């Protein structure tokens, strides 16, 4: 697409800003990395979860409630969700997993014709925290309140309480599902210089199929009249 000169200058300053941000990120990563090496850890936290060994031990008095149920009502791409946990037999190694899509039961497992028993859970948590995390008296009270930041990733979410630690998880309770109002919303806009000096490329990620929605770009100076461009293929 062609962009008049004032726009181009804005584009350049934006790119410069991006380079600056990238440098900051790189520096932070390096710091985080060396920190991890000092800790002698080097293990991806999610990889410790033996989810294929999980068994169902749903308990009628254990519960997990997540709210708000509807996320992104003001157009947000990410949002903090509060999760209230109650367990009749709390233990230090109880943990709370985030699943997305929300339905993670065995109905999502691929069918096998092996004689081997299929696992009870075939998807993997995208995040987890121990129930006692910032709830030091969880082991006494059996109640915890945890916060998770969720990013719109085009599927709904649920939260599951496990006992038995990460190595022999026992599923005690599953929460209600929460989801973003518009899971297909266009996200992650990216700007790049086009093939010619006066061209700029705008790309984004959308959950919409090309037959469901007509992509377009609206552009102009902030607060002034905007122009619409149909998307080029
Ligand atoms: C759940 O709580 C109720 C009321 O306190 C109690 O009567 C019941 O036995 C509990 N269920 C289990 C499985 O512990
Ligand atoms: C919380 O549980 C973890 C895992 O079992 C344990 O390592 C940690 O010491 C506990 N923290 C508190 C504050 O009890
Ligand atoms: C899995 O979850 C779905 C949707 O909640 C439900 O209809 C189905 O009965 C569940 N299947 C099993 C095997 O638990």
Automatic annotation (TrEMBL):
Entry-linked InterPro entries: Fn3_PAP (IPR040974), Purple_acid_Pase-like_N (IPR008963)
UniProt keyword annotation of Magnesium present: no
Signal sequence bounds: 1-32
Keyword terms of this UniProt record: Signal
Residue span, Purple acid phosphatase Fn3-like domain: 64-182
Domain of life: Eukaryota
Gene Ontology MF terms in the entry: acid phosphatase activity; metal ion binding
The name this protein goes by in its record: Putative inactive purple acid phosphatase 27
